[in-house]
Amino acid sequence: MTFRLNLDVLFRVAIGAGFASMIVAGAGMPRTTFGNPGLYPMFVGSIGLIMWIALHIQDLFRATVQHTHRGRIFDISYEFADIPPRVIRRRTMQTFGMLAGLMLGVWLLSFQLAVPLFLFITLRLFATASWRITLAWIVALELLIVVVFGDIAHVAWPRSILEGALGVSFQNLLGGPLRRLLPV
Known about the structure:
The protein is mainly alpha-helical. The protein has 7 helices and no strands.
């Protein structure tokens, strides 16, 4: 097993540094009377960093011990993995495209609509999950967004283009019915 510095490795390092910087940035955000805006980046950065470390441990295990041809959704791997470089490049571009679409969706639609839509597309198209599994995850994610980040952490999401055009707040509009499912 040889290690070479290439685009895949640089991409992995950048993702890990991004998650770590989210934790640092969140810890440095001051508390306000409304809540603690740093909780969201700290939460996302912590979960992302844990998953990032686990992915690397799994890749090292797969590269040294286990030899399989099965991949994962968004399998972006070092070139010494068991996946051809062509597939790695395609999946890397797919991941960048999907993340760009997610960011565009947050800007245009809103965080409360774009993230569940992203999850829907990912689960139905790429993971071929059943409707029941997909809808269960979307409801769970939306409850997390509304209840944990909205009601408990008091994260104020920026208004999207659609919210500004319609004159509504999806945080309040979606929060009401979801809070009735799980009262806090």
